[in-house]
Amino acid sequence: MKVSFIGLGVMGYPMAGHLVKAGFEVCVFNRTTEKAQRWANEYAGQYAESVAECVKDADVVAVCVGNDDDVRQMTTAEQGAIASMKPGSVLVDHTTTSATLAEELGAACESAGVRFMDAPVSGGQAGAENGVLTIMCGGDAQTFDALQPIFDAYGKSSVLMGDVGQGQRAKMVNQVCIAGVLTGLSEGLLLAQKSGLDIPSLVDCLKNGAAGSWQMENRAKTMDKDQYDFGFAIDWMIKDLGFCLDEAQKQGVALPLTQQSIERYRALSESGEGRSDTSVLFKAVRADAQK
What we know:
With 291 residues, the protein is of the alpha/beta class. It contains 14 helices and nine strands.
């Protein structure tokens, strides 16, 4: 399969690289051409200076950009990918977006004779670099099965959650859970610090028990040191939790902890922490506890 990859951010850059390592013929596009050139030199791949040129011969086109509007610019706009993709090819959106956009893309692809899979990922920058992402998919089973060699290149797990849009809804649940786990971890860490517990020893004690989590094992020790430069920026988390709250409203449910989390993240962003990773929530929890 020939694969095109659009978007070479902290996730897309290594994901596209894993495709080359897996033996695929890969062409990339990035709005900053210099980054696409650097990727092509590093991985001995190809790059294009326009979306149309990048996707015209591709069997699979993967997109991993910033937000809904970025995806539209790269896909459904006049100069976007769908207009230049060959019939029967597959568009895969790895961006975390609204479920509404996923359904919009599904309809646009169907009209153009192109297949579609919404496939947001979890695992962060480290997961992308190490090729162990979790991929949550929405679409038909035949397309999902055909994409397994692609997903295996940079994923540890891929699961078909249902029709188009369900991948994005699964990612929303993922982000809600992360926010909740980080809130609990932050409060527990604060109590541990005040009680004089040794944090590395505490993590080693708890990580394999019922309180254990990826966040505890990978972030508690750095949170204790007030280090928050580990990839996924809270400005992106604010976007993602906004999708969660919008979807919750459509479903007629309240998510009070998620609402509290997004408010804390917004305050942190306004104070200059927008590029810090999500574990910086500890700062907000600590500040609230000291009021």
